Amino acid sequence: MTETTVDEVDTEETPQSYTSESAPSRNSAIEPAAATGRRKQAIARVRIAPGSGNWTINGRTLEAYFPNKVHQQLVSSPLVELELSDRYDIVARIDGGGVSGQAGALRLGIARALNAADAENNRPALKKAGFLTRDARVTERKKAGLKKARKAPQYSKR
Q1: Residue 116: how many other CB atoms lie within 10 Å
Q2: SS3 at position 83
Q3: Would you say residue 135 lies in a domain?
Q4: Where is the composition biased (Polar residues) (predicted)?
């Protein structure tokens, strides 16, 4: 039986850390992440993972779930801003609200997930574009004696 010395063990190649072979670039850090986005009454739970740019929203594609091109553009704007459109697969579960609220919630969820994946590189651009700010505007409640939140019944003098 042969004995190994400490010097022989140190010369063996053991990985110290798992890094990419290429030099790190701005878009090199691709990590899975998850986040939640909210807008009005809509809530979007978003998971991003390294991939080829596939979208799954409540089991449907982006084009099937948001047929309006404006909503598709709004939802994908954080990825376009960071030039990561084809590097992440996005899986989202959206509940509540209307179509515009759901699109806003999904955009915030994607931006937060990208921030969680690589805050050092992604946060400044996302913050400057305003994607990390929750839109706090919600529907105003109806008041007693009024027809809607602010609309009063017609006034009659006699």
Answers
A1: 16
A2: coil
A3: no
A4: 15-28
Q: What is the pTM of this model?
A: 0.77
Helical residues (DSSP H) of the chain, grouped into ranges: 6-11, 62-65, 69-82, 99-117, 119-129
How many folded domains does the chain comprise?
1
Domain membership flag for residue 19:
no
Q: How many Cα atoms are found within 13 Å in the side-chain-facing hemisphere of 118? A: 19
Indicate whether 83 belongs to any domain.
yes
Place of tokens 């979007």: 44
Query: In CATH, what number is assigned to the domain containing residue 124?
Result: 3.30.230.10
Let me know the angle formed at the C-alpha of 30 by 25 and 31, rounded to the nearest 5 degrees: 140
What are the tokens at 18?
Answer: 């798992």
pLDDT of 76 higher than 90? yes
Q: State whether residue 74 is helix, strand or coil.
A: helix
Residues 34-67 pLDDT 10s = 999 999 999 999 999 999 999 999 999 999 999 9
Q: Does residue 17 lie in a domain region?
A: no
Task: Please state, in angstroms and rounded to a whole number, the distance separating the CA atoms of residues 148 and 152.
Answer: 7
